[in-house]
User: What shape does this take?
Amino acid sequence: MPDVKTSNPTPLGAFSFASTTLLHSLYNIHVGNVTQPNVIVGMALFTGGLAQLLAGMWAFPFGDVFSATAFTLYGAFWLSFATILLPGTGILDAYQDHSGMLDNALGIYLMTWFVITLLLLIVTLRKNIAFIVLFCMVDITFLILAISKFATSEVGGKVGGIAGLLTAVIAYYVALAELLAVEKNPLFTLPLGHLV
Assistant: This one.
């Protein structure tokens, strides 16, 4: 079996999560006046979805059940989100004749992920400060985005986008800290704030 420290899949999962969250958050705040989410589909399928799913599967053999669970779940989140947006699935088309139902459906979808993240947040309380802050921000982002969908609020969506940008920055920090920690002679390291 490979050495756990040198085979840590956490950087891959965290970089994948951060990058897809960054792209989606930039879309939510309408950078460049982009309002159509089509460009997110590829990133959500392969970076946020497949890469995180693989990171989750690779974490299981090394006994890192938390990373395995979190990355697999968020990989599934991005894959399912991409499926909603993917032209040809008929998911978005099913709501065309039902005013407001799509926003409510997306609100319910995002609230479900808020609950999942809240449960994962409880586990991070024994990990490190960086993970606690990251999962708090992920949860806040899901909550704001869910509320903005229920309220059909474009401003709420932009606030959720800003929260998502902060989440992405924190996730990039965690990814870089984890990657530097497994390097043999890193130029520097970043603290995660270990609690135990």
